[in-house]
Amino acid sequence: MAAKQGPNFDTIMRDLKARKFSPIYILMGEEAYYIDRIADYIAEHVLAPEERDFNQTVVFGADTNAVQVADMARRYPMMAEYQVIIVKEAQNIRSLEALEKYLKTPVKSTILVWCHKNGKIDRRKKVVSMAESVGVVFESERLKEWKLPEFIKKYVAERKATIEEKAAQMMADHIGADLHRMTSELDKLFVALPETDRRVTPDIVEKQIGVSKDFNAFELRNALIKRDVFKANQIIKYFDSNPKAGSLYAFLPLLFNYFQNLMVVHYAPKKSTEADIAQALEMRWGAKDYLDGIRNYSAKKTMDIIAKIREIDAKSKGLDNPNTGAGDLMKELIFFILH
After folding, report:
1. Per the confidence metrics, is the pTM higher than 0.85?
2. Beta partners for residue 84, in sequence order
């Protein structure tokens, strides 16, 4: 039987903004960013500033236990509609028996936020199903690399700005799936934008973040898609001279994702138009890259490239590779793809 699908981040935030609160929020998973966003919103918006001294408590899992948390949760608010209890680093609390007992009859005026990071509570434990029956259980999964540009565009749009596709991909390639760092760097960009033009361009990313708009993983990927040997070698040479600009570890996931998708396109029943490809890959933009790809790489070559990327990835981690450096592995992979 498939696991129950819990509410997503957007649904939870919509309810919070409508002041539809639950007695308990179990926030768990590998991606700390969404856990922190929900917990911070509750901390900042449920109670008025003058109500927080007596009605808002923040504790850490290493310094408390479930019995103490349950006792706090059974209290009633003082001159306020709610009391808020936020348990940070809750993964350090081992026994959850007292929490299970509390959830049998939770106090409606208490909002208990349980932040369990770096993993999930075993869903076979009763505490999860009990929390789902009276409140919210949210699993915060690490964002896939290929979804980063979409995340960036959404974050930028929420701040009343726009970002060009290439600029979004440059940010994704340079920073990766560290969402806290990503949003911090984006916030720096907003400060640099003039009030009359709230548009993030590749030039702005290059100037403010320090990543070249001409020599980066996005441009390398484009050169490979088009089989532009000269441009690809130019970028590899630039990476050799400027290790911080790009590395094997930065673009391996990008290339693997592209060629894996290209293999799907090769075997899709319809693939003659961008709309066909967008439907096959369930993507909003970037379909043209795959039209170019199926012209330049056969299904057999695509499969060989995927195997080579896996081989290079293993070698980069030291498997069957006594002394070849990351730079030489990068050149080996690019040569294999282009020839």
Report:
1. no
2. 56, 111
